[in-house]
Each structure stands twice: as structure tokens, then as C-alpha cells.
Amino acid sequence: MHTDSMRSALVWIFTLNVCLQILFIPGGDSKPHPRFREKITEDYNPGFISIDCGASNDYLDEETSIFFKTDTDFIETGENFLTSSQFIQTNDPDLGRQLHTLRSFPEGNRNCYTLKPEYKQGEQKSYLIRAMFGYGNYDGKNHAPTFDLYLGVNYWINVNTATNSYIWTEIIHAPTTDTIQVCLVNIDTGTPFISSLELRPLSTSIYQIMSQSYLHLKGRFDVGGPVVNFYKRYKDDIYDRRWYWRDVKDWYKINTTIDVNKSGNDIYQVPAEILKTAVQSFNRSYDLYHDYEIEWNVHLNKYSRYYVYFHFAEIQKLAPGLRRIINITLNDENILSEPITLEYMKPVTISNKNATQGFVRFSIRATAESDAPPILNAFEVYELITDLNSPTDIKDVDAMENIKRYYGISRIDWQGDPCVPEIFRWSGLDCSYGINPRIISLNLSSSKLGGQIAASVSDLSELQSLDVSDNSLNGFVPESLSQLEYLRILNIGGNKLSGSIPAKLIERSKNGSLILSVDGNQNLCTSTQCHKRNRVVIPLVVTLVGAFILSAVSLFVFRRVQVVVSMTKLKFSNKMEYVDSKKQEFSYSEVQSITNNFERVVGKGGFGTVYYGCIGETQVAVKMLSHSSTQGVQQFQTEANILTRVHHRCLTPLIGYCNEGTRTALIYEYMTNGDLAEKLSGQSQTFLGWEQRFQIALDSAIGLEYLHNGCKPPIIHRDVKTRNILLDENLRAKISDFGLSRIFSDDGDTHVSTAIAGTPGYLDPEYNTTNRLNEKSDVYSFGIVLLEIITGRTVILKAQVRTHIIKWVSSMLADDGEIDGVVDTRLQGEYDSEAARKVIDVAMACVAPSSVNRPTMNQVVMELKQCFPVGKLGTTSTGSSEIVSAGEISGLSSLAR
Ligand SMILES: *[C@@H]1O[C@H](CO)[C@@H](O)[C@H](O)[C@H]1NC(C)=O
Ligand SMILES: *[C@@H]1O[C@H](CO)[C@@H](O)[C@H](O)[C@H]1NC(C)=O
Ligand SMILES: *[C@@H]1O[C@H](CO)[C@@H](O)[C@H](O)[C@H]1NC(C)=O
Ligand SMILES: *[C@@H]1O[C@H](CO)[C@@H](O)[C@H](O)[C@H]1NC(C)=O
Ligand SMILES: *[C@@H]1O[C@H](CO)[C@@H](O)[C@H](O)[C@H]1NC(C)=O
Ligand SMILES: *[C@@H]1O[C@H](CO)[C@@H](O)[C@H](O)[C@H]1NC(C)=O
Ligand SMILES: *[C@@H]1O[C@H](CO)[C@@H](O)[C@H](O)[C@H]1NC(C)=O
């Protein structure tokens, strides 16, 4: 309906003729000043998104003081081009470098930029969005194309630029979604392209932005100013509106050098530079009249509706007692309930409350009481666009985005809204077109999909048909599929799915309400009988290649294997591997899916944030490493690969890793009882008794000893602390974060590392000063851990004076040599004092200032064991003998309990 009007709409066209008048000093494609390259962040242009399409690097545009980015973060498709140098020279230099490059889209019918503006929770969103197009004969064809521009699912404008000119177009919009898409649509009249795309946050109280509508800028004029050929914009205008001067015959120019008073509640924030100039009529009985169509020689659609914003500020000091009172009519309707008296230097903005229709003719006149003729400082004209299309239901959109990311699907037509407009519906989808379109069918058959059936599929709650047949999907058929109540067709045939089919789905297929196709999945059990048994087999189950195949065995066999294994003392442990050993590396999208898009933070450490997740039925902790490795991608992979094969019952099993560009993550088995620091803090529900504490001390010592002596080359932990000692469901300790130092250090054999890792308080003072890393640094940190276990105090005691735990223990012991004051009073004397003394002795030896005086972890383990009669503690088996020999790979110990 509004299409015609918009196609004929006036856009900013600067022809060669106009621009030839401009004196332009060619700046070439000068590199941004190095001074500005450094960390120019949001505080430079808060909330702005500025994309110089086709640019090869981010830069600060010194003309405009705006920091422009490349397309990289906003679109995946298209190709970059340079415009001709002649074009650049003939066009307005004030637009900065954005006309130098462009991005064009030879492929696909619709290509979309996705903008994710920042906004504060609860705040209403409202943005100015501007796109610019300068063809500049980039393709040498000397013929500018014509194409359509969409804002999300709604038509915005037909881009039709002349070969030697550029166009820009602007919309003010209050979206209901968090993301905004700007799409270029090929209408078979040439290859779409774009030069720049900008988004500016607005204060919502300005302009009449209603939901389900937007304002399309027709014109924004600074009247009364001198003749200039550039736009006034940022930084004069905090909203980066572009103002163009306008000279109208019969209007007299007036100006002032004094800035208008900005301290009032002037929400429109029209720049002082704009308000300082104005036009005035000849005399009080003469109107300031403007007919938009006549002035611009255009024809407005008689169905379109418009808003006009008049900006005033009295810039003439009238004689005392004299007043300037004005009355405004727009299309012959009075838009003021009563005439307004302009006050000196006080900005005021007037607009029509009800959009006017068909044309834009206004008249500003002085009332009979006015002592001065009417004036006008600036004005803006917007077309109101209503009757917007509804986008696809947001839950479906999110689900599709997750599915797309999870499988890494890059189909040219999978851009923009999945269902709307219908002609651009994503391939493989079918939608119902109600008030909010919904996805009712997803067909991804023969799409080379790997991984599992994406959990997000179950979020497509109105799905009637799902076809993921003939891919390489593995894992289970998610139970959640049975929650899709409208599902009538489910085809998962021709994959590598295992386990069983959710019973409800089988039921539905039996009574005819679901057409279920599952053929061609070798390990998929199709009867309800196998249901229970199969659940035991999780992807992390260990198999003995050659000896036992454990891939889909019953619990019974499973147990027997363990027995055999422990009897044979792990002789053939080097032949073991994960069933799913290939699955050690995860893609970022898999990590997203595993963590349900980083839903739950379970910890924060020096190396990054830890998220809760699930792989199949295994709970995992995903540590996103906050800084990327100093080593290469390859090396990270190698290291992570090795670490996933280091298994010991006193180490947190590392299941896998992700290494995608700067996104690196380590995936551990999740430890239900959290970390030791928390348990000791007293904030946790469980209170650790003496025996539990001793067991934890011993387990941790054994874990460290294994890292030092059981691995080849040895692994030095470098960040031993109570936070890195995790407790499983039986409160047995497991060292976590081992090997991070391997991944992060570039020390090679010299053990001289460039970056000192570790946590204050735990850091070996010798290592700190010499920067020489050896395993005795771990011994030192472990000594601190022992002291914490004994005393129940934190490493830095937060009394009035911050005291280190070593100092505190030493001074307590120095007083009377008695340990009573040292041991955690919360134990209420319930401890073996002899053993406690021994542990304190070991701890103090570990924290000896000089590393040569510290024991090895091997000695520590032996000493600790002597403190406690064997057998008194759980089922602790003796350290080293049980440990897999150096360099060997075992997945057993984590199962052997
Ligand atoms: C202000 O008005 C004076 C007098 O008409 C004119 O000479 C001058 O150029 C104007 N200045 C601006 C900035 O418009
Ligand atoms: C600016 O406006 C404020 C509030 O309207 C007023 O208090 C102040 O006196 C004004 N300042 C000048 C210089 O006019
Ligand atoms: C006001 O100016 C107009 C245009 O110059 C002129 O025709 C008219 O006579 C003037 N009126 C008065 C009262 O001066
Ligand atoms: C608002 O303007 C439209 C179009 O000019 C008109 O049809 C409508 O009656 C007006 N509404 C009000 C409340 O004045
Ligand atoms: C303002 O203009 C309207 C419409 O032309 C008119 O009806 C009204 O009387 C005017 N008010 C004054 C105070 O001149
Ligand atoms: C999915 O698409 C394939 C290939 O286009 C087709 O053979 C199959 O019938 C479709 N599945 C459904 C459920 O429509
Ligand atoms: C088929 O079974 C499902 C699940 O038990 C049930 O919800 C559905 O109503 C049944 N449909 C028919 C047609 O019996």
C-alpha cells in the first residue's frame, strides 16, 4: 500500500552537478591516524553502531569523530569492493570515508545485516537507523542497480541511485526485538550493495514512535544558515541526525552568536549550531509558508501520513515588553491548542499530534498580539509507516538461530526472518501465517548434519513435521521431542543415532498419531523394552579396544570389566580410549548448546568463567578461557588433546575442549559438591569433619603427585588452591584446572615462563622472584592448602590487619608450640591431634621459603599416609601403585570406583 509512495519518495540525492561546486581536497584512502587506532571504545560514541560496508579495517573517521567498523560482525555474505576514485572525488567529503568502499551481494535474494544494539534492561528501545548507498562504478559497468531495502520484515525503500550520486535514507524505529535486521533484496534489476549502515540510540520521549510503526525521514533542515555544502551531524548533534541547510525564497535569514540555553528540559537536543540561525518573514502580517511538494518538486502519495517537527528558539533580543507569538497550521489544521510565545534562547519543539495526510503544507504566522514576525529555526518531516508485517514468533526465531549455529548451517537464504516475507522463507521450512507466523515444518534431510539432534528443535513448539533423515547425527533421540504436541511426522532415519526412542513417541506412532521413520540407525533401539538399559550407556563410557567392546553393553558386563581391570592392575591401560574419542573437540555452537547458551554460571576463575552444561546425561562444567592461548591453535589442540587423556581418580576428568578462533573452552566433568574453598568457608551446607578433611588432603596430594611423576612430560599445575580442588558426590577431592599452565605457558623445556600464573597468597615467593617454574612451586601452594584445611581459615586472613596464613600459623606455634589454637575451632576438638601435628609439619615444610628445602609431592603423599592408619579412610587405594604409569592414557580410574 505504501510502496508506491515510498518508491517515489524523495531521498537525498546529490548529483554530480551539485557536488561539483564543492571544493574537495582528495584525502586518498588514508590510513586512520595511529593515535586513534588504539582502543577506541563505546565511550567514544556511546551506543552507536557504525558500519563502513566493505572496509578492510575498523577506523576512527576523523571527519565525523565516529568510529566505524567493518562488516565482519554483522553479516556473513557479500563481497567487498572499492568505488572509483573519480566518484570519491566528486562526492561530499563530509561523509568521510564511507563512500570509498561498499559491499555487494551477488548471491541470494535477500542478504541481511544483524544489528544488536545495547540497551539497558527495562528501557524502551528506540533507534535512528541510516543506510547509505554510493555506487561509484565499483563494478566497472557504469550502471547503478536498483533494489529494495527492508527493515526486518518490512519494506523500507527502493534504492535507486544515479551512477554518480549517492543516497541515504533514515528510519526511526522502536523495535520489539533485541536485534534489528536490515536486508537488501534483489529484485532482478542489478546486484544490491551498501556503503554504510548506522544505528543511533534515541531518547524514547522524542518523536512519536508507536509500536507497529516507524518514521521514515523525508527531510531535516537547518534553515537560515549560510550556504554550506555539508551536513551538520555528530558531534554537534548527540543523536547524529544529519541536518541540511535550506534556503527558501521570501525567507529572511537571521542569526546570533550566542548559544541557546541548553539547561532547560529540551529533550530534542537540536544542536546549538542549528538553532543559532533562523528565518523570519518580511513583516508581522506575512506568513512563513512552505509547501513541501512545490519546494522539492515531488509528488507525495495522497494516502501517506506525515509528522512535521518545528524547532524554534528566539534568537533576537526584543525590546522589553515586546513578544513574538506564533500560531502554526499544517495542512490547514491548527496544530497548537493555543499560540506560543517564544522565550529568548529557549528551545522549543512543536509537532502535530495526529499525523497529517496526503501533503505537507505549513504556515507559521504571527498572531495579532505579536510584536514581531514569525520565525523558524529548523524543521523535520517524517512519513509515518504503519501496518507493519509481524515477524515470526520470537521463540521460533531463537530456536532457528540456535539450530543454524549448532549445525553450522550456512545457506544463503537462511538470513533475516525465517518465515516473513513469505517469498523469502528459509529453505526447508514451512510456516503458518497467523498473527505471528509460526514454523510448522522443518526439513533438514540430507544436509550433512553432524552432532546430535539439536535440543533447540524441541523449542519449535508448533512443529508438525520434522525431517532430519540421512545425516550423520549421533547421540540420543531427545526426550523433549515428545513434548512437541502437534508433531505428526518425524523422520530421523539414516543417521547414527543410538539409545532408544522416547516411549511417548513410540506410543504415538503405534496409535497412528505420529508417522515415525527411524530406519538406518544401527544402534537405535526401536522398542520400548530397551528403554532402561540403554540409558546406562553414556557417550563417555570407556572401552577396551581389542579386549572388550563396551560400546553398548549391559550394566552387568560393565561391572565385570571393572573387576577385570582392577585385577590386572591396568596392564593394558594404554589400549584404552573413549568410545567417543573423536568427540573431544567441540565446536563453539556445540558448546553453546551444551551450556544452553551459557545459561548458568557455576564459577569464575583466573582462566575464565565456568558454566554448567550437559552432554547427553553427563553433567559438565565448561570453562571458557578468558584469554586465548599464546601458543598457536595447533598447539592448544595438541595440549588439550593430551589433557583429555590424562585420567586419574584424583583429577577432574577433562572431557573435551573447544578451539574456534579466540573461543577456547575446556569441558570437565561436573563435580556436584563444588570446591574446597566454599566448603571450608562455612557458607556451604556440609561441614567437613576431620576425616573428610584428611581424605581431601590426601586425595589432592595424590592427584598432584600424579601430575608431577605420573605424567610424561610432568605437568606443573601452577595454580594449586582450595578453589581448584573440587569435591565429587562422595566429598572425594579431585584436582581441577591441571594442565592449564601447559596450555598457557610457552616455556618449553627451560621452565622459564613469561607470564607468572597463580593466585595471590598461593604463589611461591621464589618462583615469583626468579620466574623459574618447577614442581616445588606446586608443593608450596599445596602447603598453603593444607594449612587452610587444618585451620579452616583463608590464605589471607581478613582481620583488621591482613595476615598471610603462614605468618599466622607460625606466630600461633611460636607462642606455645601447641597446635590447639591452630586447628579449626569448628571441629570442636574432634580431631586426631598427633595426625594434625604431622599435617602441620608437612604443611610448614611445603611452604619453606627455599624450594630445595621443600619435600617432593611423593614425599608428601608418603608422610600423609603415615599419619593415618590405612583402612581407616574410605577405600583410598595407595597412591602411585594404582596410578597409570607415565605417559600412558587411561580412562579407567574415573570409573574404577
Ligand atoms: C549572520 O548574519 C550576518 C548579517 O546578516 C551575516 O553577515 C552573517 O554571515 C550571518 N552569519 C551566519 C553564521 O549566518
Ligand atoms: C537557562 O534556563 C534555566 C531553566 O529554564 C534558567 O534557570 C537559567 O536562568 C537560564 N539561563 C540563561 C543564561 O538564560
Ligand atoms: C508585508 O510584506 C509583504 C511582502 O513584502 C508586503 O506585500 C506587505 O505589504 C507587507 N505588509 C505590511 C503591513 O507591511
Ligand atoms: C488524524 O488524522 C487523520 C488523517 O489526517 C484523520 O483521518 C483522523 O480523523 C485524525 N484523527 C484525529 C483524532 O484528529
Ligand atoms: C491560530 O490559528 C488558527 C487557525 O488558523 C485560528 O483559528 C486561531 O484563531 C489562531 N489563533 C490566534 C490567537 O491567532
Ligand atoms: C524433506 O525434503 C526431502 C528432499 O527435498 C524430501 O524428499 C522429503 O520428502 C521431505 N520430507 C518431508 C517430511 O516433507
Ligand atoms: C496416541 O497416543 C498419545 C500418547 O499416548 C496420546 O496423547 C494421543 O491422544 C493418542 N492418539 C490417539 C489418536 O489415540
Name the features.
binds 2-acetamido-2-deoxy-beta-D-glucopyranose; 897 residues; 21 helices; Jelly Rolls; 6-stranded mixed beta sheet; 6 domains; alpha+beta
Second-tier CATH architecture of the largest domain:
Orthogonal Bundle
Q: Mind telling me the C-alpha Rg? A: 36 Å
Structural class: alpha+beta
Q: Can you tell me the residue ranges where pLDDT is under 50 for at least 5 consecutive residues?
A: 1-42, 531-582, 746-756, 874-897
Percentage beta strand: 15-25%
The helix count comes to 21
- Number of self-contained structural domains: 6
Describe the structure.
With 897 residues, this protein is an alpha+beta fold. The chain has 21 helices and 47 strands. The strands form twelve sheets. Strands 1, 7, 10, 13, 14, 15, 19, 23, 24 and 27 form a ten-stranded mixed sheet that branches. The chain has a six-stranded mixed sheet with strand order 38-42-43-41-40-39. Strands 18, 20, 21, 22 and 25 form a five-stranded antiparallel sheet that branches. The longest helix is centred in the C-terminal third of the chain and has 21 residues, at 690-710. The N and C termini lie far apart (72 Å). Residues 1-42, 531-582, 746-756 and 874-897 have low confidence and may be disordered. The structure holds 2-acetamido-2-deoxy-beta-D-glucopyranose (7 copies).
